[in-house]
Specification:
- By secondary structure, this protein is of the alpha/beta class.
- The protein folds into three domains: 186 residues, Rossmann fold (3-Layer(aba) Sandwich); 78 residues, Roll (Ubiquitin-like (UB roll)), CATH 3.10.20.600; 82 residues, NADH-ubiquinone oxidoreductase 51kDa subunit, iron-sulphur binding domain (de novo design (two linked rop proteins), Up-down Bundle), CATH 1.20.1440.230.
- The protein is built from 16 helices and ten strands.
- A hairpin with a 5-residue loop joins strand 8 and strand 9.
- Helix 3 crosses helix 4, helix 4 packs across helix 8 and helix 12 packs antiparallel against helix 13.
- The longest helix has 18 residues.
- It is globular, with a radius of gyration of 21 Å.
- 49% of the residues are buried.
- Bound molecules: flavin mononucleotide and iron/sulfur cluster (SF4).
- The site of iron/sulfur cluster has 14 residues, from helix 13 and helix 15.
């Protein structure tokens, strides 16, 4: 099982794009017990809805995938951390867990094969930061959802300080196809660096918004043609923590490696399309407000930086810069650099990326405004 997952080249879908096989192998290699499997179903990135659809449509798939993960790495207990605002997914998962237990698919003797594995459901309470893996552990443990410094990494000291596999819902569900058909079949779709298919959450100014499953490597243009985007002037890839691309980037192949090389990201699979009628200044101000609100406040670069960034973007969006717009842009870049370099976790490290990409690529706030 471990070899198939490693050979498949499966890459995590939660945003950080980490190879799943390496994560599982690291936990499997840990001698101590207990170990845990955690499914990150917090789905807190704005614009993301793929995990909700997977859980609502086929909760058993996730239960099966978590069980495979647990029995592969030597964990007897899994935690499914579900976004609190997903009542239908909660109801369906609760019913599916009960049925799986009743049929011997979970419990002390899974499928009569002698393995023990069970899953506990935990609900988030609306904090974006609780999707960050170490904050999620803290939340399950009953503490404030605040990230911890890494290292140690979860594979060594994760939930309750024990070796932990933490994976996104979409990542886990991919394991089922790998186990059923083998790594080679999985690699038949996608590219060498991004094997398989990807779920894209398409929204905004498109005729057919929704969830699209396509092989990695499809171009942004092909995806937008399917969704019916007449005028994709700006496309936010990867959510609030992602990057904007523009009409000049439509030939970009949607893979981890191509987006990285282009200075963009696939993140959690968000593809938010904005046409020319949308004023980007207020959109950027809303993104800045989101990060200010959601910063856990634990470290200074993020706690102060997200506030200063929001003030600055709001000034620019209102056409009321403090001094020259070029100076405001320079200050914005400096704030971004500071948050990227000195924040503890991914929230602070990515809080400026969408905004800075819009300034750089789409030339938002490029014009001088007389103060
Ligand atoms: C602020 C923040 C929020 C995050 N939210 C989520 C989330 O909602 N769901 C998710 O799967 N990963 C989220 N992540 C990424 C997780 O920390 C982690 O990388 C992921 O769950 C690992 O699973 P994967 O290897 O299957 O991608 C978030 C990261 C950060 C920094
Ligand atoms: S970067 Fe922001 S969200 Fe992350 S620990 Fe620091 S203050 Fe909290």
């Amino acid at each position: 099982m471990l070899r198939e997952v490693t050979d498949s080249g499966l890459v995590g879908r939660g945003g950080a794009a980490f190879p799943t096989g390496r994560k599982w192998a690291a936990v499997a290699a840990q001698a101590g017990r207990p170990k845990y499997v955690v499914c990150n179903a917090d789905e807190s990135e704005p614009g993301t809805f793929k995990d909700r659809v997977l859980m609502e449509e086929d909760p058993f798939a996730l239960i099966e995938a978590m069980t495979i993960a647990g029995t592969t790495v030597g964990a007897e207990l899994g935690f499914l951390y579900l976004r609190g605002e997903y009542p239908l997914a909660r109801a369906r998962l609760t019913a599916a867990l009960a049925e799986a237990r009743a049929r011997g698919l979970l419990g002390d003797d899974v499928m009569g094969k002698g393995a023990r594995f069970d899953i506990e459901l935990r609900l988030g309470a609306g904090a974006y930061i609780c999707g960050e893996e170490t904050a999620l552990f803290a939340s399950i443990e009953g503490f404030r959802g605040e990230p911890r410094t890494k290292p140690p990494f979860p594979v060594e000291a994760g939930l309750f300080g024990r070796p932990t596999v933490v994976n996104n819902v979409e990542t886990l569900v991919n394991v089922l196809g790998i186990v059923a058909d083998g790594a080679a079949a999985y690699r038949a779709l996608g590219t060498a660096g991004s094997p398989g298919t990807r779920l894209f959450c398409v929204s905004g100014n498109v005729a057919r918004p929704g969830l699209y499953e396509l092989p990695f490597g499809v171009t942004l243009r092909a995806l937008l043609d399917l969704a019916g985007a007449d005028d994709p002037a700006a496309v936010l890839l990867g959510g609030a923590a992602g990057t904007f691309v523009g009409a000049a980037d439509l030939e970009l192949p949607l893979t981890f490696e191509d987006t990285r090389a282009a200075g963009a990201t696939l993140g959690s699979g968000v593809v938010l399309v904005l046409d020319r009628t949308v004023a980007l200044g207020p959109v950027l101000a809303r993104i800045a407000q989101f990060f200010r609100d959601e910063s856990c406040g634990q470290c200074v670069p993020c706690r102060v930086g997200t506030v200063r960034q929001e003030e600055l973007i709001t000034r620019l969006a209102r056409g009321a810069p403090r001094g020259a717009v070029a100076d405001e842009r320079a200050l914005l870049a400096e704030l971004g650099q500071c948050m990227r370099d000195a924040s503890i976790c991914g929230l602070g490290q990515t809080a400026s990326s969408a905004i800075e990409s819009a300034v750089a690529r789409l030339k938002v706030f490029a014009d001088e405004v007389t103060p």
